[in-house]
């Protein structure tokens, strides 16, 4: 995937089937993906209706949930989704962004909609790149070679393994659910956020 002048990189995206599936994004080579491009990459590489599918998976969850944004001493922003498993609070999935770039992640598909909603709010996607003023502030992918049928891993890449293990090491107390917690079945708001950002972009263009 070519990002622009002197910026190029390969990003591999995989979304498994229904059930206990995962959404993986692997920064394979070169420049990491700018956070504001995550929407256009997923839209290009996933099947039509991917937002609706992620929202449907989210609403099928059986326990309450909460999204929190944390900051590391190094400035990395981590988006965490908390829920209940076996009557215990857990951190289910995380997405990390460092210096405005998406780190490799592997999250449960049912966690994707609420996490991506928060990412979109903080790093609004650009829906109308044809407007002249965007050229000075953003790089856009100019080429999307799709290798979904050609790239197969005999083993899960280590960065993906690491990202899958990280949430398990986060200790969570029941107090985390005292505020900003939603019951199962409540919409993530991702579709409303996308539509609102599109309208705002038109007004500001």
TrEMBL record:
This is Uncharacterized protein. It comes from Formimonas warabiya.
